[in-house]
Amino acid sequence: MLENVSLRPYNTFGIDVNARYFKECLNLEELRELLPFLRQNAFVVSGGGSNLLFTKDFPGLFLKNNLRGIREIERSNREVIIEAGAGENWHEFVLYCVEKGFGGIENLSLIPGCVGASPMQNIGAYGVEIKDTFEYLDALEIATGELKRFNLDDCAFGYRESVFKRALKNQYIICSVAFRLSLHPTLNTSYGVIEAELAKMNVLEPTLKDVSNAVIRIRQSKLPDPQHLGNAGSFFKNPVVEAEVLANIATNYPKVPSYPASDGMVKLAAGWLIEQAGWKGKKMGAVGVHELQALVLVNFGGARGSEVFELSQRIVDDVEATFGVRLEREVNIF
Ligand code: FAD
Ligand code: NAP
Question: pLDDT per residue over 284-318, tens digit each?
């Protein structure tokens, strides 16, 4: 175990804080050896560090989960079950599946981070969430050292939610995740600008690879690359509100975008609310709101995590004052 390690290379915001302890684990045995320590100390398990914000030095153990390996578990005429180690890079895993002709996660191309974090918030983009193809995950229980299997219903997946963020927070280390993918996939191109991008690419009959490429191109055109500009993707979740809240906003803002959600609720676009509140492209010292996507807060260089957090708080307060809607942070704050 290393001590007093800078986490700057381990979080895509590029925040320079120290972890009191640091350990990278390559296999289950190494994880098991750490369990007594984890039972006594604060810790954070991490993959790619693309959904974390450190507001101060971390007083416990930063555990980089680097369990690797991709294997085929089962195959029928129609489907294949593929299991990947928690430390596999998510986008490389998506590309691996696309190359093999396994369909279902191509719309999730270019999401940063690792496979092991994907169930944490049921990652989603372009009309697809991992819950749509999720088969099971295996996770190490910290209290007992047992490897436990979680099926779909056990995970309580919701919009950017799972049981691992709520009732079972800090109780399990996800070691591998399996997906049921289609050998005869139906492509999902109806969301947003995918079809327009395919047309720009002169693609008339898209393949899995074309859809993946279209998503990559769209994302590269509007999202900052953390290698060049520190960020953790969408800082806030899209709020899901009562229809009445939407109606109130529409009185003053008739063009307010909204999408149907479950139980008669509606989803608002947090980025739009932030933009209307005047924050898009704004800079506050070393931090700011991205000029093309108001949901993304950025570190222009050398920012402290507390500065990012303060900016986020000002946005939360302004959006609430303007629209009566309180934004919830998606990024995990430490
Ligand atoms: P980390 O940031 O390392 O960890 C995130 C959380 O998961 C933490 O709470 C951590 O403790 C926990 N965790 C990580 N690994 C494990 C494990 N093995 N066991 C238990 N707990 C674990 N997200 C989306 O949903 N959709 C998007 O389209 C999207 N686009 C993004 C674009 C950009 C440019 C960026 C920077 C981020 C984006 N994100 C998106 C957010 C982020 O990429 C995802 O949430 C991703 O799944 C985080 O993976 P990670 O390995 O980096 O997790
Ligand atoms: P966008 O296409 O400009 O859309 C803005 C918002 O409206 C999105 O947040 C999206 O909600 C919602 N939306 C748009 N079309 C929709 C539809 N047909 N049905 C339901 N909801 C719709 O969004 P963007 O910022 O460019 O992002 C594109 C996709 O990548 C989105 O799915 C977004 O969630 C995902 N993304 C996520 C992160 C992250 O860190 N979490 C970062 C970048 C991009 P949803 O977000 O619910 O889809």
Answer: 999 999 999 999 999 999 999 999 999 999 999 99
Specify the CATH architecture of the domain 2-65.
2-Layer Sandwich (3.30)
Residue among 51, 134, 161 to mutate when testing ligand 1 (max atoms within 8 A of CB) = 51
Q: Domains of the chain: which residue ranges?
A: 2-65, 70-182, 230-333
Report the chain's mean pLDDT, rounded to a whole number: 97
* Helix pair angle (208-222, 90-100), 10° resolution: 150
> What pTM does this model have?
0.97
For ligand 2, say whether the CB of 51 is within 6 Å of any of its atoms: no
Q: Whose CA is nearest to atom 29 of ligand 2?
A: 125
Fold classification of 70-182 (topology level): 3.30.465
Q: How far is CA 316 from CA 165, 224, 258, in A?
A: 21, 22, 19
CATH number of the 230-333 domain: 3.90.78.10
